[in-house]
Amino acid sequence: MGIQDEQPQRDGDLLVALAQIDTCVGDLDGNADIIMDYSHKAAKQGAALVVFPEMSLTGYPIEDLAFRASFRRAAWSRADRLARELDEQGLGHLHVIVGTVGTDADQDRPRNRLVVLHQGRVEAGYDKHFLPNYGVFDEYRIFTPGDRTVVLEVQGHRIGLAICEDIWQEGDPISDLAGRDIDLLVTINGSPFEEGKGHVRYELAARRAKQVGAPLLYLNQVGGQDDLVFDGGSFVVDQDGTLLERSPRFVQDLSTWTLPARGERPMPSKSCMAEEMPGDEEVYRACVLGLQDYMAKNHFTGVCLGLSGGIDSALVATMAADACGGEHVRGISMPSRYSSEGSRDDAADLAQRLGVRYVVQAIGPEFNAFQGQLHLEGVAEENLQARIRGVIVMAYANAEGLLALATGNKSELACGYSTIYGDAVGGYAPIKDLLKTRVWQLARWRNAQAQARGEREPIPVNSIVKPPSAELRQGQKDSDSLPDYSLLDKVLEAYIERAHGRADLLADGFDPDTVDTVMRLVDRAEWKRRQYPLGPKVTSLAFGRDRRLPVTNAFRE
What we know:
Elements: E1 14-20, H1 28-44, E2 49-51, H2 69-88, E3 95-104, E4 109-118, E5 121-127, H3 139-142, E6 151-154, E7 157-163, H4 174-177, E8 184-189, H5 198-212, E9 216-220, E10 222-225, E11 228-231, E12 235-237, E13 243-246, E14 253-259, H6 279-297, E15 303-306, H7 311-324, E16 329-333, H8 341-354, E17 357-360, H9 364-374, H10 378-400, E18 403-404, H11 410-415, H12 436-452, H13 461-465, H14 485-497, H15 502-507, H16 512-524, H17 526-529
Parallel strand pairs: 1-2, 2-3, 7-8, 8-9, 15-16, 15-18, 16-17
Antiparallel strand pairs: 1-14, 3-4, 4-5, 6-7, 9-12, 10-11, 12-13
Helix pairs in contact: 1-2, 6-7, 6-12, 7-8, 7-12, 9-10, 14-16
């Protein structure tokens, strides 16, 4: 948590607190308690203005909960009561900017609203103008847009207000605020994580700061909500592009920054300038935070998963141990007659390194019992093993009150290389949006981080370097059914994340046989992906949340 700048506050200065918090959708009282707690902390540091994220009182995104009029009334009542409680607890002097849901009185429809709490009442309100309807957003369907700008006055400073998408689009409210002589533009945001997105936010904010002729404060939500992860990383940027404050990412934080008297140049914070984060770290931490918050917000205290000795389950188990502690992870080894001794040893080694609760449950007896009745062959026989393992994982989940984790990666999901009701079972899939090559990359990064801290590597090296295999038949390797992952992932990235069609892929230099194979596998597997658990979105285009194609898809161009 940031601390107050070292220099004393002078007359005319305004100390602003950036309250980057983690909220839960629908939990009005819980979210209000967090807002109260951080407002007290801001007041102790001498702040006069404290800023919270978009829809912080209701949680974000509230999706169709916004249509429930009783919820909107409860949210408005809670905002009004929060204003009184702030005043009763000696914080009435604070200007507290909070996001919530409002109602368009003319149409009786919800609005994405910002309110200012001050002196025991809701002093001002502002409704979001631009309602995104792309990617993960569905706001145009849910909310009605606002149509006016608001300038708040705090201790002689003129502060313009905006909500998230309002700064991404041209026109009002930004163009209007540019002519209103403001000293600071505050935008509250619920901007989900996406690898590489940080610099895009900063560059946009710098342009808007220049446009309005004042610093811009970008306050972002942090935490996981279903398959979205919000990374925080709030910041303040001056109109000349100078970074004035940067909050840490993936954690709740209260940082402060001083807006000087009118006519004086703003200075960078001396105490709140978090370091930038490399790509592997930000993706890994996004996956861990997504799992951690999914557990917390669904009241799970532990997880269980199958440990095969392979790289996918090894990385998921490591993320789980980082999210909730190894003692809260149940690792289940479920060897069959096709499981190599090396894989069994690697699973046991991983469990020991992570300190997970480990159990071996061989599936031979169950497999023989089914085969005695069904006499399956080929793929059906292979999938029977996966489904027996799925039953065992879910049995432990039910018996011990655990969240079952699916360990499939994006490459496997793309190509349908998974078994419905087998390895696809679970309530959450932490690496669902990671291509196989990225799984290996993050495993190496996590081991390197442990080495740098003088700790033992969590993932056995053999799990990283050995050829991947489902081990459902003798001598099986993933390469028997799929192109080599180094090639496959390049085609998948172009086909899925860049939306390249067949002609585009050929122009990219991929050979026709590979292109046709990959496109066929991906298109035919859509029905499986519809049934796969949620997992954290970390790329520009994730299955389920972003990419929704018809289950029957005959288009091949």
